[in-house]
Amino acid sequence: GLDGSSEISGLLSNVQDIETLTEDVINVVRTKMREQNAIRDTTIFVRPFVELFMDSTNAPRMFTINKLLKKMVEFQPSLAKPFAEGLLQHPRMNFALPALIWNSAMDLLQFLVRFPDYKGIRDIFKQLLEKVQMLMSHTPLQDIEKVFKFYTLVALIMNPDNNLQLSYFIQNEIKQTLPWGKPENPYPPCFSSLILKFIDSFRPTAQLVSITGRDMLYPIVGYSNYASILWRLHYAKLKFHQTAPLPFDRAQVQPQTELFCYVIKQLNSRDLAFSLVGIARNVKQRITAIEESLADLLIWNIFETNKIQDFEGQLHLWTVTAHIVLVYVQNVCIALSGILNTINIKIASFPGSIYGTGRDWLMWLIGQMLCHVLNKNHVKSTWSDYLVLLDLIRTLYSDSQPIPEPDYRDFQSVVSVAAASNWYFLTTRVIPVIAASTQSNSLPQYQTPNALYLHVEALKSLEDRKLSSIDDYRFYISWNIVGNDTKLNSPYMDTLFKVYILNTSQSIPASHMSHNVFGPSEGIPYRSLDAMSAHVKCLIARQYYSDIISKNLFNPTQWSMVSPGGVESFARLLAYPEVEQDRLKELLNLTDTIINKNWYLGAHLLAELFTFRLHRIPTSIRAQLLQQFSGILASPLHAGHPQLHCAIQNLLLNLILQFNCTDLYNQVPKLIDSKMLQSVFTKESEEINKVFILCIARSFIVTGSESMPVPWCTEFLTQILQITPHGWSASTLETMPTFMAEWYRAHPINDIYRDIRARVDDDYKKLTNSASLANEQEIVKHFSQPTNTTCLCVFLKLTIEDRPLRSYINTFYEIFKNLLTRSMNGHYRTLAEYILREITLQQNHSQTFMQKYADAVVLMATRYNIIQLDRLLLILFLRPLEESKTPYVHILFYFMINSNTLSEIIKDFGNIARSISCDIWSMKNFHEKFHCEYIKVSFYC
Length: 941
Fold this sequence. Notes:
By secondary structure, the protein is mostly helical. Among the domains are: 5-207, no CATH class; 284-484, no CATH class; 756-898, no CATH class. The chain has 46 helices and 2 strands. β1 and β2 (517-518) form a beta hairpin. α15 (288-305) packs across α17 (336-348) and α26 (534-552) runs parallel beside α28.
């Protein structure tokens, strides 16, 4: 083989001429290498030479071997790394080595590190750092020279001027091999200055690649979702993801618990919170960081509640918190027992006991979701999950004296007995069922805390009494502890439906409604809904949907079963997130059924619910609603219901505006590819199309993507332009993303309203000249033609000219009866263009002129009831108007608001509004009061 160490040892035994000896050894090594042509196993080859080096006992021999190894490396550079690693990995290579061998080894290593590549130097440097770990905090005096030689070698590699290794790799090896540098575990004193100075040289780089002040820039739900990656946290440690081995600021590497709690506190924060920790919504992995954050939020609420004296303030705080916690607990990755266990551990460490109303509100919140979580939890429950709550109750209610019973006529009683309700529910409903299912005989026994003794006894008496009337809050307290038993829930459900939902012999007077409606007019009070647990609220909503809506909604003869009180109760239930999530898909399916059966009353009801009561509609469902309700507008069977058209148009605008910038930028391309949105944008919905385009333009700007045009957007704009030809003013195009503005400039449209003034004047002359149109039938036929959209403009001109309208009003009503709701959009746009051209082309914009036009428009909406003012204003403000002419629209709107007719209406409405208490939800029979005092007669009713 290549060994040859015996022959080399013989040559080294007679040291006379070092130069001649070295040449002889080199010739031997060269001969051996030529025989093998290549070094197969360098480790075996260099081992004898390393042993010769480590066994040297005198300086001349050491000097000879040192020079020999250097000559070998110069002859074969690939041997540099094996020689260096062989020396560093030798068992005797430590600070106890004799100074002669150690110093010579350091000298040889300084020579060797100049030959390997970056990867080889990286491996050598890692082994040097492992030697640094062997240094003690105090270096003995006799080892100072050795440490200095070693220090020189390490500094040689770390010096960037020598170009031996990339500084970034050195920084990475320091971080991985020496996890020190903290005050409690500092670097060795002799190397501390060298390492810290080297690390500090990377601080500008760390600042360059990090977001300055990111720990103080808190994300906002709904606006920061698209940029959640900027705050990406580790799901367990809640630290920013810092993969680079750089010396970041302390704020960048600390757990961001405060930032995460800030996100958790916001409503509808689930998607953003899951995105921050990089967890999908349907993941089954338990996220303890969210549990701890929710526990911190609840503990903070406990102490904050004790500072709030106002009961309404306490209710608002805990109602919002209950909605937040329930949304998270419904996911299988968050366990209620984990939150309670964290609270129990932290509260146990507090000095003294926790008193005040804060602990009662915490029990109320837990009671809200306890039974609901039992039904939604996909993981089989065990005793330990609920014994945690019993332990928490014992910790919080350690009073020696029983707490007296509250006044059950006050909502505060529900909060006061919440702890006893939870205790009674667990010990009588939950734990026995678990014990029976597991066939266990060792049922844990817990003695009722002294503080809750009177409350628990009162609950036992309530259950024995079986309340059948809603006299006070004891009805809801006893209902909450029933659980899932259908037989026990049935009496409570029947009583509630009889009072608030089912029809009775009473009816609302027909003069106040479009038809008789039987049944209660007052919905379930919000205070009563707050007193119910989430499980009870979901039961009520499910029962109402299955027994009332599904059975009676499509039968006009049974429509009286759907009482105003029932509809209002269902609408109020939908305001709670647990009910909304439970019923949303069913309402979506219901919309499909209504469209298929073409029943406009149900469509109007759903449009009102989706517009004013539902606030947490997911993006995918929102897109389906756009498609479904646009189909109702396109259906010819609903063309004769203008009020339904107005309600659905408001709903569509509301759904579009609810899209946040992230949804539009990320989700709309998927919806366009699926052809779902093609049915939304019709030729009758120009304003909806333009609003959607404005929202898309805003999303590009807000997300910082305006400089990156995407193919789907231009394709979408082309499709919309073919459906509803439209344009934008120059001032609007300047604010749009550049690629959208250039696209619109490259695709101008013809002005179809350029001769609108001449056409209106011509029809005006035909109407006022009896010779042109002889009778009423000819007038109606002329203005009812699909191509003629000037009737509203002619009526406006008649009003402005102070012509006697008595002889024309009935004729115009006949014209409007012949016009379909969808065709009215064209009449509105023609009217808007006519008004704009009249007020912008006028040379003298006097106050009298503007006031005359404003009064005429208001009279058309209020006295003659032939237009809807909000619909006209929407079209007016969306017409393409140059910046120099835009103020005239605002001036017209100002005069409209200040016109005598509209001012009186606004004043009357203000007087009525001031007469109503601000807590409108707590008023009784507000439905009847609304129809009595807010009578609004319209031509389209």
